[in-house]
Amino acid sequence: MQTHLARAAASVDTRAAIPEPFADDALVTQPQLKRLTGDVSDMTIWRWRRAGIIPEPTSIRGRNYWRAGDVRELLARLAGGAQ
Asked: Which end of the chain is more exposed for a tag (fewer CB within 10 A), N or C?
């Protein structure tokens, strides 16, 4: 799991990740989250959820969504080398 985190941290561009005009309550889809964290797999997202690295998503009609504010915090942690 650390390998995926290291790879994701190296590829995160926090300036281009989520534009600031988006409210913290805006929703980010799982494909967007995967792309923002370095094109990780669905299984990696699942493992990160299970390990508590990322929060549980909100599920709407069977699709997973995360709050933009939570994703910004995750990207900042990854870029800072935390976890």
From this structure: N
* Bridge partners for 64 per DSSP: 59
Global pTM reads: 0.70
List the domain range (segments joined by +) for residue 73. 2-15+24-80
Tell me the CATH number at 42. Answer: 1.10.1660
Q: What is the pLDDT of residues 63-72, one digit of tens each?
A: 999 999 898 8
- Structural domain tally of the chain? 1
Q: Please write the tens of the pLDDT for every residue from 28-43.
A: 999 999 988 889 999 9
